[in-house]
Write a structure and sequence with these properties.
By secondary structure, the protein is α/β, with parallel strands linked by helices. Helices cover 42% and strands 15% of the residues. Strands 3-2-1-4-5-7 form a 6-stranded parallel β-sheet, sandwiched between helices. The protein has a 3-stranded parallel β-sheet with strand order 6-8-12. Strands 9-11-13 form a 3-stranded mixed β-sheet. The chain is globular and about 55 Å long. The protein binds nicotinamide-adenine-dinucleotide and 2-amino-3-ketobutyric acid.
């Protein structure tokens, strides 16, 4: 189908990824053809730029009505509870992350939607997965409820593709760094807060130890990866669970040193909390060679380039 014929529903559009993904999709498909939806109120950055509906993904009937009423052909499902918040209420995280996905998959099958996008996470990996260059296929034993829900979700996506031919595509995002919309309660959120605190207070107390390396990505790369995967011909998409993608890996000490190059008075301290155990269970770096060869994935931002862009945008 040509971009003009598509009608897209973004669920969770007021969140950290949702705002920027909705903006990017509206540029490609036209403002009127991308319906933003969320449980929360519409994000200020989206107001006046296209249609918005208030929607609870857990209400399957309401979701189904919206898909039919708006003639939706593609769904991007972003509503979820992330790793740190999930550990505070595991039952709720499991319920939203699983039932929300199953509702969308059922409707995609019944209404024969063109495509569905649903993100997974590096949180699927656990302490027994390789720490360096963690491969696409490896031992996967997550320790968080978020990671368990993402891993189970990956296999539901694979199942709906194999059994019902639902064209669902997915990426295992690393920690995402951005300045437009606030993060939603992940272990990697420190790498966003650090910029805000450095600019406002010239100091930051980090919830992770200084040498905790984690895979990270700047939001423009994440949005581009998502759209490139969704636009790839179905014949190039060999992975129907979720793709590893990678951009950079750094520790709190390294990002602190990079910020210090621009704000010399910046000081960091460390007060590790329950998020340390989560971070320790994840790989330090990711092997994304399958995404590179299947649909040409290549990141543009490293730590240096991202830091410059984050500081410039937050200052302005
Ligand atoms: P977020 O928490 O910022 O946004 C999620 C949005 O979903 C929020 O606006 C929230 O109001 C909405 N929502 C919650 N419950 C809902 C419901 N019942 N119905 C409708 N909307 C509801 O999260 P995010 O960072 O934008 O993440 C989006 C997706 O990407 C999630 O699946 C997350 O697991 C995944 N992901 C994110 C990151 C990251 O670093 N941000 C990394 C890996 C994977
Ligand atoms: C989190 O920290 O929970 C997210 C993720 C890596 O999925 N940023």
């Amino acid at each position: 189908m040509s971009p003009a014929k598509e009608k897209i529903l973004v669920i969770g559009a007021s969140g950290q990824i949702g705002v920027e993904l909705t903006q990017a999709l509206r540029k490609i498909y036209g403002n009127a053809n991308v319906v933003a939806s969320d449980l929360r109120e519409e994000n200020d950055l989206l107001k006046g730029t296209g249609p918005y509906v208030s929607l609870d993904v857990m209400n399957k009937e309401m979701l189904h009505v919206q898909v039919i009423r708006q003639n939706i052909t593609q769904v991007y499902l972003l509503a979820a509870i992330l790793s740190a918040t999930g550990e505070k209420n595991p039952g709720l995280a499991w319920h939203l992350n699983m039932q929300g996905l199953l509702n969308v998959l059922d409707i995609a099958r019944d209404e024969k939607l063109q495509k569905v996008y649903w993100p997974s996470s590096i949180a699927v990996f656990g302490p027994t997965s390789p720490k360096e260059n963690c491969p696409q296929q490896t031992i996967i034993e997550p320790i968080t409820v978020y990671g368990i829900s993402k891993y189970a979700g990956e296999f539901w996506c694979n199942y709906f593709h194999r059994r019902f031919r639902v064209d669902i595509r997915s990426i295992r995002y690393p920690g995402l760094i951005s300045y437009k919309s606030s993060p939603g309660g992940g272990t990697t959120d420190y790498a966003i807060e650090i910029f805000q605190e450095a600019l406002e207070n010239k100091k930051y107390s980090c919830c992770l130890q200084k040498d905790t390396y984690l895979p990270m990505m700047y939001m423009p790369d994440a949005i581009r990866a998502t759209i490139e995967l969704m636009e790839a011909p179905a014949s190039s998409v060999s992975v129907r669970t979720s793709y590893n993608v990678s951009a950079m890996s750094f520790s709190p000490e390294e990002i602190g040193a990079e910020i210090k190059k621009h704000i010399p008075e910046f000081r960091m301290s460390y007060a590790p909390d329950y998020r340390q155990e989560i971070a320790n269970s994840w790989p330090k770096s990711i092997d994304d060679s399958v995404a590179r060869s299947d649909w040409g994935w290549k990141p543009e931002y490293n730590l240096e380039k991202m830091t410059l862009d984050m500081l410039a945008n937050l200052q302005s």
